[in-house]
Structure to design on (1159 residues):
C-alpha cells in the first residue's frame, strides 16, 4: 500500500489564496464560498473575482472542485439534491443566491456549455431558437430567423449547416454539436458564459476551432472555462485559477501562473509532477 | 389400476432406479478397481430416468387418448338410429352411460344396459393393457440401462445432455403455445369463413348471431357483420386511453421529476396496485357503482344514458391500465440522460418547460410503445366489458350509448351449451383471430420501438 | 442587453404560474388514481362487510313423528326421507297462529331458509331420541329477512316498492321483540359451496377449486418456466436466430389477451385431447400457458443479476456448465425467481376470462374433491354472483372479492418481503 500521508503535496498548507484573486470592475465576485454535498465539503472558502470581458481558466487535478465551483455561478447546483452553498456570490454586485434572485433569470444571464455536447433531440434551428422561444425574446418569426442565423454565424457554424437547419441537431459531428450548444447559449445573449471542459470530448481540430471562437466571444462576453488542458488555459485565458482538493490555491494572470507560480502546489501541477 | 396408482408406482420405481444405479456403479468400480468417470449419483440419475420417463410418457398418452377411443368404440356398436342422431345427443348418451356404470344401478333399457356392460369391459381391458405396457416398459428401461453401466461410461455428460434437452423442451413450450394459438384460431376461422364471407364479416354492420332453430323463425338467420363489435371495442379502448394516457403520463412525470423519494416510495406501489386488482373486481365495480353513478350524473345534466354505457366501462378500464402507461413512461423518462436536462436548465428553462420541450420529445418513442401496450391491453380486456358494457351491437361512436365488444361477444358465443362446431362457436374463433392479430401487431411494434429506443441511449 | 433582461422578467410570473400548474396536474393525476383505488376498496368493503354476518331465526320446533310421517325412528333410510319440511312449516304456524290466506302462508314459510329442513334432518339423524320432543332451534333466515336486519330495506318506502310487505314486517317486529332474530358470524360463507339461495351460498367450493387450479398451475409452470429461463439465460447460444425467435415469442405471449389462451384451451385441450370441461386440471393447464411468460421473464432477469464472478469461480474450479448453473447460479437467483413466480401466481389467481371459455362457469354446488371434479374458481364465482339480481348476492359478491383481494395481498406481501430480503443479501 502506498502511504498517502507521505505524499508531498499533502504536507503543503493552504492558508489563503495566493496571487491576485481580486481585481477592479469584477463581473463576478465570490467571497467565503463553501459548498457541501450532504456531509461532504467540496469547496473550502473560495474568494475570487472574475473580470468583465475576460476569459478566466480554472485548472486543477480531477475532483479538485473546479466544476462544482463553476456550477455555483449559475446555480446549476440547485438541481442537485442535498447540495448547499454558503458565502456570497455577486454578479454585478447583486447576490445571486438571494431570495429575490431568480434562477431562471440568472441562467439567462449566465449561460453554460457542458463537457459533453448535449444538443436537444430537435432540429438545429429549434435548438438555437429554444432559449429565445422560452424567454419570449423574439416577437416575430422573422426576428427569430434572424436571431438563429446571427447566433449560428457567431458560433461559426452557419456555413456548415445553413442548408440543413431543419435536420436533427444530434446528427452533427461532435465539434459541430458543441458549437451548436454555444450558438444556443449566445442566442439568448447572456452576459457570462461558463464552459465546463468544452473541448475534452473533441478532436484537436474541433478543439482549435472552439478555442478561436472563445477568444472571439470574449470581446463581448465574460467567459469562465474549466479545463484539463494547461495548454488550452495558456492559449485562451487572461487569468488562471488553480484549484486543489476543494481549495482555491492560486489566482493570477495566466502568464504569471505558468511562468512564475507562487505556490508550491501550483508549481507541482504545472510542471506535471501530478494531476 | 387407476392413473394415480400407476403414477405413484412409477415414482417409486424412479427412486428405486436411482438407488440401484448408484449402488451398482460403486460396486462395479470397486470390483474392477477402476475409477468411475462420474459421480455415483450421475449413474443413479440415468437409471432413474430410463426406468420412469418412457413409461410415464406412454401412460400420459394412453390416458389422454383412452376416453375418445372408448367412446367411439361404444358408438360404433350402437344401433344405427343412435349413430345418426346429432353430436349433442350422442355426447349426452355417452355421459349417461359413464354415469350409469359408476352408479351400479340396475338398468332396464336394453340398449343402455348393453352399452354399460360394453363400456365396463372396455375400461377394464384398457386398464389391464395399460398397466402391463407401462410396467414392462419401466422394468425394461431399468434393466437395459443397468446393463450399460460401466465405470468408464460418461454418465455425467449423458445426464447433462438430458438436462439440456429437457430445458430446450421447456423453452419450446412457449413457441408451441404460440403455434397452438395460431392454429386453433386459424383452423376454426377457415371453417367459419366457408359459410360467412370475409368481407361481410369485416365490414358488415349487422351482428346477430342467433341462428334459426326452426325454419320459419323470424330474424333468426344469424348474421355476422362484426363492424359494430370492432367499433365498440375501439370506442371503449379510446375512452380508456383518454383516461389512462394523461393520468399515467402525468403520474410518471410527477414521480420521476418532482416527487420526493419518500413520496415516490409510497405512491409507486400504490399505483401499481391498480394493475394487481383482478379484472373481475373492476368489472363488478364498473357495473354496480360507476355505471349507475354516470347514469345519474347524466340524468342530472339532462342526458339520457343507458346503464351500460361505453363510458363507464371505458373509464374503469382506463384506470386499470394507468399503471401500464405510468410504469413504462417512468422507466423511459428516467432513462433520458441528465445532460439534456442540464442543458435545458442552463438555458434558463423551468422544470416544466424542460419536461415538455426536452424530456417528453426525447422519451417519446418509449412513451408511445407504452401507450401501444396499454392499447393492446385495453382491446383484449374481457371481464370489465362483459360485466359493464353489455351485448347490444350498436354501430355508434357515441360513448354515452351501450356498445358491445369483440371479447364480450366471444364470451357470449362460447359460454352456454352448444355444439363445438356450430357457426356461432366458429364465429368466436374468427373474432379471436382478429383479436390475436391486432394485439400481435401492436405488441410487435411496441417491442420494436422500445428496443430501438434503448439502443439510442445505451 | 438590458431589454433582454426586462423581456424575460416580464414573462417570469406567467412562466412560474405555468410551472406551478403543471406540478399540480401531476400531483392530481396521482391523487385521482389513488382516489379511485380507495373508492373501489372502500365501496367493496362497505358492501361486502355485512356478508360476514348472517341472520338466524329462532323457532320452537315440535318434532312430531306424525308430521314427519315416520314409523320406525331407528331406520336410517326412513329418517333420511322423512317430511321435515312439514315440521318446520307447522312450527312457524304455531309461532304465528293468526296467519290466513295462501299468499300470507307462503310468505310465512319463506321467513326461514330452505336449508332449515336439512338442518333439522341432520339433527334428527344424529340423535333420533329428540323425536316427539320440543326443541328451540336456530335456523338460517331467508335472504330478505337478512337484508332487512342489515338495514338494506327501507321501511319508509311505499309497500309496493319493498321486498318485504307490511304484514311480514309485523312478523319480523314480533320476532325481534321476542329476541328470536339474531345476527351471527356467517360461518356458512366459508364452509358451503355455491347455492341458488343467497343465505346458503358459500365460497368453499370456489376456494377449493381455485386452490386445486393453482396447484396444477404451479406444479407445471414453475419447473417449466424456470427450466426455460435457465436455458435461455445460461445455455442458449447468443445471437442465434432460433433463440431470438423464442425470445420475441415469449415477450409477445406476455401481452396476448388472456381470453385468447381460453380459446387455445378450448380448441386444443378440450377439442383435440378430449380433456373434460370445467375441471381444475384444464383450468390449470390454460393458466400455466398464460403465466409461463411472466415466470420466464422475471426468472431470466434474476439469473442475469447473478454476478458473473460466481460463474467464473465455479467454472474455474472445474465444475461443468450444468453443475455451475444448478449448484451456484440458480440458488443465488432463487429469491428473485420465487418472487416472479408468486407474482405470476397472483395474476393467475385473479384471472377469469380464459376460464369462462373452458366451461368453469357452470353452476356447481358441490365442493370439488380432486383436479378432475367439475368446479369453479373464486373470480368466476364472483362473476356468477354479480349476475344474480338478489341484493343478498351483491353483498356476497363483495365479500368474495374481499377474500380474493385478501389472498392477493398476502401473496404480494410475500413477494415484497422476499425481494427485500434478496436486496439486503446482495
Amino acid at each position: 500500500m502506498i502511504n498517502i500521508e507521505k505524499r508531498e503535496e499533502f504536507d503543503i498548507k493552504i492558508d489563503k489564496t495566493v496571487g491576485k484573486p481580486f481585481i477592479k470592475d469584477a463581473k463576478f465576485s465570490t467571497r467565503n464560498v463553501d459548498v457541501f454535498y450532504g456531509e461532504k465539503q467540496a469547496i473550502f472558502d473560495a474568494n475570487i473575482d472574475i473580470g468583465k470581458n475576460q476569459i478566466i481558466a480554472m485548472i486543477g487535478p480531477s475532483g479538485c472542485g473546479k466544476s462544482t465551483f463553476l456550477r455555483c455561478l449559475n446555480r446549476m447546483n440547485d438541481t442537485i439534491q442535498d447540495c448547499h452553498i454558503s458565502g456570497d456570490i455577486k454578479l454585478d454586485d447583486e447576490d445571486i443566491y438571494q431570495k429575490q434572485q431568480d434562477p431562471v433569470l440568472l441562467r439567462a444571464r449566465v449561460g453554460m456549455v457542458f463537457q459533453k455536447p448535449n444538443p436537444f433531440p430537435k432540429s438545429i434551428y429549434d435548438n438555437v431558437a429554444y432559449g429565445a422561444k422560452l424567454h419570449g425574446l423574439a416577437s416575430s418569426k422573422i426576428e427569430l430567423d434572424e436571431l438563429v442565423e446571427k447566433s449560428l454565424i457567431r458560433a461559426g457554424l452557419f456555413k456548415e449547416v445553413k442548408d440543413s437547419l431543419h435536420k436533427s441537431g444530434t446528427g452533427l459531428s461532435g465539434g459541430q454539436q458543441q458549437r451548436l450548444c454555444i450558438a444556443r447559449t449566445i442566442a439568448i445573449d447572456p452576459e457570462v458564459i461558463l464552459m465546463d471542459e468544452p473541448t475534452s470530448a473533441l478532436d484537436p481540430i474541433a478543439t482549435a476551432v472552439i478555442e478561436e471562437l472563445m477568444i472571439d466571444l470574449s470581446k463581448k462576453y465574460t467567459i469562465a472555462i474549466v479545463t484539463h488542458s494547461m495548454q488550452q488555459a495558456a492559449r485562451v485565458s487572461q487569468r488562471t485559477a488553480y484549484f486543489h482538493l476543494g481549495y482555491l490555491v492560486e489566482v493570477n494572470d495566466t502568464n504569471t501562473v505558468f511562468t512564475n507560480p507562487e505556490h508550491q502546489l501550483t508549481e507541482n501541477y504545472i510542471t506535471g509532477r501530478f494531476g | 389400476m387407476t392413473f394415480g396408482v400407476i403414477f405413484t408406482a412409477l415414482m417409486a420405481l424412479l427412486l428405486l432406479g436411482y438407488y440401484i444405479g448408484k449402488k451398482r456403479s460403486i460396486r462395479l468400480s470397486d470390483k474392477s478397481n477402476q475409477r468411475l468417470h462420474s459421480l455415483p449419483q450421475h449413474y443413479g440419475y440415468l437409471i432413474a430416468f430410463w426406468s420412469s420417463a418412457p413409461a410415464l410418457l406412454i401412460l400420459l398418452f394412453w390416458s389422454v387418448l383412452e376416453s375418445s377411443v372408448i367412446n367411439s368404440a361404444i358408438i360404433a356398436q350402437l344401433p344405427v338410429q343412435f349413430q345418426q342422431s346429432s353430436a349433442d345427443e350422442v355426447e349426452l348418451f355417452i355421459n349417461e352411460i359413464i354415469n350409469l356404470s359408476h352408479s351400479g344401478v340396475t338398468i332396464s333399457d336394453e340398449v343402455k344396459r348393453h352399452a354399460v356392460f360394453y363400456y365396463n369391459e372396455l375400461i377394464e381391458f384398457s386398464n389391464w393393457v395399460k398397466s402391463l405396457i407401462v410396467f414392462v416398459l419401466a422394468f425394461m428401461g431399468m434393466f437395459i440401462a443397468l446393463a450399460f453401466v460401466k465405470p468408464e461410461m460418461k454418465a455425467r455428460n449423458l445426464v447433462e445432455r438430458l438436462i439440456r434437452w429437457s430445458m430446450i423442451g421447456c423453452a419450446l413450450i412457449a413457441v408451441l403455445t404460440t403455434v397452438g394459438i395460431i392454429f386453433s384460431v386459424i383452423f376454426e376461422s377457415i371453417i367459419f369463413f366457408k359459410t360467412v364471407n370475409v368481407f361481410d364479416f369485416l365490414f358488415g354492420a349487422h351482428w346477430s348471431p342467433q341462428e334459426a332453430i326452426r325454419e320459419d323463425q323470424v330474424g333468426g338467420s344469424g348474421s355476422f357483420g362484426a363492424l359494430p363489435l370492432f367499433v365498440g371495442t375501439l370506442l371503449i379502448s379510446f375512452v380508456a386511453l383518454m383516461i389512462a394516457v394523461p393520468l399515467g403520463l402525468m403520474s410518471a412525470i410527477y414521480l420521476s421529476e418532482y416527487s420526493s423519494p419518500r413520496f415516490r416510495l409510497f405512491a409507486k406501489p400504490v399505483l401499481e396496485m391498480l394493475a394487481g386488482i383482478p379484472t373481475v373486481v373492476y368489472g363488478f365495480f364498473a357495473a354496480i357503482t360507476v355505471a349507475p353513478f354516470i347514469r345519474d350524473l347524466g340524468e342530472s345534466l339532462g342526458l339520457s344514458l343507458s346503464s351500460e354505457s361505453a363510458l363507464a366501462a371505458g373509464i374503469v378500464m382506463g384506470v386499470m391500465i394507468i399503471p401500464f402507461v405510468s410504469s413504462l413512461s417512468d422507466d423511459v423518462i428516467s432513462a433520458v440522460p441528465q445532460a439534456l436536462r442540464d442543458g435545458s436548465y442552463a438555458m434558463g428553462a423551468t422544470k416544466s418547460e424542460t419536461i415538455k420541450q426536452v424530456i417528453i420529445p426525447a422519451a417519446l418513442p418509449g412513451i408511445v410503445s407504452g401507450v401501444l401496450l396499454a392499447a393492446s391491453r385495453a382491446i383484449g380486456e374481457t371481464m370489465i366489458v362483459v360485466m359493464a358494457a353489455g351485448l347490444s351491437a350498436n354501430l355508434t361512436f357515441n360513448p354515452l350509448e351501450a356498445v358491445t365488444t369483440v371479447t364480450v361477444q366471444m364470451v357470449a358465443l362460447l359460454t352456454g351449451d352448444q355444439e363445438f362446431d356450430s357457426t356461432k362457436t366458429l364465429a368466436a374463433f374468427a373474432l379471436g383471430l382478429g383479436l390475436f392479430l391486432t394485439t400481435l401487431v401492436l405488441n410487435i411494434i411496441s417491442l420494436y420501438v422500445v428496443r430501438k429506443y434503448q439502443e439510442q441511449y445505451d | 442587453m438590458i431589454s433582454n433582461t426586462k423581456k424575460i422578467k416580464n414573462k417570469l410570473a406567467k412562466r412560474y404560474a405555468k410551472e406551478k400548474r403543471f406540478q399540480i396536474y401531476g400531483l392530481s393525476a396521482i391523487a385521482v388514481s389513488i382516489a379511485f383505488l380507495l373508492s373501489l376498496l372502500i365501496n367493496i368493503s362497505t358492501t361486502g362487510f355485512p356478508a360476514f354476518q348472517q341472520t338466524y331465526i329462532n323457532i320452537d320446533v315440535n318434532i312430531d313423528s306424525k308430521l314427519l310421517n315416520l314409523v320406525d325412528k331407528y331406520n336410517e333410510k326412513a329418517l333420511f326421507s322423512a317430511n321435515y319440511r312439514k315440521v318446520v312449516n307447522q312450527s312457524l304456524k304455531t309461532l304465528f297462529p293468526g296467519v290466513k290466506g295462501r299468499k300470507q302462508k307462503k310468505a310465512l314459510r319463506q321467513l326461514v331458509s330452505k336449508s332449515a329442513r336439512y338442518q333439522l334432518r341432520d339433527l334428527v339423524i344424529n340423535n333420533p331420541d329428540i323425536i316427539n320432543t320440543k326443541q328451540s332451534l336456530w335456523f338460517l333466515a331467508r335472504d330478505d329477512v337478512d337484508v332487512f336486519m342489515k338495514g338494506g330495506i327501507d321501511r319508509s318506502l311505499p309497500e309496493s316498492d319493498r321486498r318485504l310487505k307490511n304484514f311480514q314486517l309485523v312478523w319480523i317486529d314480533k320476532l325481534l321483540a321476542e329476541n328470536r332474530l339474531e345476527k351471527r358470524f356467517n360461518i356458512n360463507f366459508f364452509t358451503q359451496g355455491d347455492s341458488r339461495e343467497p343465505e346458503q351460498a358459500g365460497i368453499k367450493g370456489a376456494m377449493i377449486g381455485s386452490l386445486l387450479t393453482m396447484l396444477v398451475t404451479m406444479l407445471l409452470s414453475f419447473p417449466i418456466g424456470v427450466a426455460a429461463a435457465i436455458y435461455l439465460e445460461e445455455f442458449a447460444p447468443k445471437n442465434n436466430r432460433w433463440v431470438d425467435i423464442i425470445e420475441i415469442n415469449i415477450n409477445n405471449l406476455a401481452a396476448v389477451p388472456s381470453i385468447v389462451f381460453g380459446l387455445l384451451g378450448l380448441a386444443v385441450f378440450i377439442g383435440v385431447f378430449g380433456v373434460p370441461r370445467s375441471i381444475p386440471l384444464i383450468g390449470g393447464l390454460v393458466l400455466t400457458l398464460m403465466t409461463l411468460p411472466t415466470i420466464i421473464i422475471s426468472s431470466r432477469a434474476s439469473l442475469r443479476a447473478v454476478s458473473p464472478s460466481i460463474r467464473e469461480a465455479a467454472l474455474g474450479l472445474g465444475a461443468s456448465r450444468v453443475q455451475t448453473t444448478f449448484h451456484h447460479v440458480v440458488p443465488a437467483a432463487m429469491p428473485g425467481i420465487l418472487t416472479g413466480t408468486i407474482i405470476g401466481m397472483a395474476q393467475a389467481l385473479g384471472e377469469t376470462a380464459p376460464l369462462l371459455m373452458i366451461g368453469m362457469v357452470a353452476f356447481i354446488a358441490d365442493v370439488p374433491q380432486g383436479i378432475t371434479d367439475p368446479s369453479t374458481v373464486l373470480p368466476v364465482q364472483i362473476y356468477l354472483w354479480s349476475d344474480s339480481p338478489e341484493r343478498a348476492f351483491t353483498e356476497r359478491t363483495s365479500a368474495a372479492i374481499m377474500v380474493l383481494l385478501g389472498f392477493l395481498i398476502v401473496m404480494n406481501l410475500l413477494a415484497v418481503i422476499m425481494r427485500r430480503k434478496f436486496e439486503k443479501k446482495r
Remarks:
- The domain at 221-457 of chain B is CATH 1.10.3720.10 (MetI-like fold).
- The CA atoms of residues 68 and 184 of chain B lie 19 Å apart.
- Strands of chain B lie at 207-211, 221-224.
